[in-house]
Design brief:
This protein is of the alpha+beta class. It folds into two domains: about 120 residues, no CATH class; about 35 residues, no CATH class. Helix content is about 45%, strand content about 25%. It is built from five helices and eight strands, in the order βββββαβββαααα. The strands form three sheets. Strands 1-4-5 form a three-stranded antiparallel beta sheet. Strands 6-7-8 form a three-stranded antiparallel beta sheet. The relative contact order is 0.09.
């Protein structure tokens, strides 16, 4: 649901939650910017609102106010576990649900990233160390000129022997290489 939410409608008669396949009452139908509709149950609505506010939602409820002119206003009352509350218009609720969903995705990707880092910790550390070392190497002006000359020779002349020599040098270990320090 990385799409903006244009409208939300509470379905009082309820329905089958598409995720849990259980009957829930009420349900909420979200209209996305593409015109597609999504159905959410109470747990997901509370989860997204909690993520948006960074506080746990205790409950929320739709309030319909009838003005003296006969117009109806829909407001959404959200009560948190610390008994703080918020009263939102429908458009504000849509924005909060969108932000909550984005935060949930960010947390999911951060968690996956941490798992990958922990599984590949020593490999990742080796890559970081190698990158840092390669960036610290100072090339003298003379070496830079030789490198540029050789590169231009390979590019301009299409010299296959020079290209093969370059590949051979890159694939061979450095004569002063000692390897990486092993970490436990």
């Amino acid at each position: 649901m990385s799409l903006k939410i244009n409208n939300i409608r509470q379905v009082d008669e309820g329905g089958i939650n598409p995720k849990t396949e259980l009957f829930e009452q009420p349900m909420w139908e979200l209209t996305l910017e593409t015109g597609e509709n999504r159905i959410l149950g109470k747990p997901k609505m509370e989860e997204y609102l909690s993520k948006a506010y960074e506080k746990t939602v205790h409950h929320f409820k739709r309030r319909i106010s009838v003005l003296t002119s006969g117009n109806r206003i829909t407001q959404w009352s959200i009560v948190f576990t610390d008994y703080d509350d918020a009263l939102l218009a429908t458009s504000e609720l849509c924005d909060k649900l969108y932000k909550g969903h984005q935060r949930k995705d960010e947390e999911k990707y951060n968690k996956l990233d941490e798992e990958l880092t922990s599984k590949r910790g020593s490999v990742s550390e080796a890559i970081v160390k190698a990158t840092e070392r390669s960036q610290r190497v100072d090339i003298t002006k003379d070496d830079r000129e030789k490198l540029d000359t050789f590169r231009n020779q390979v590019v301009e002349e299409g010299n296959k022997e020079a290209y093969r020599e370059l590949i051979r040098r890159d694939s061979a270990p450095h004569p002063d290489a000692k390897g990486y320090e092993e970490t436990k």
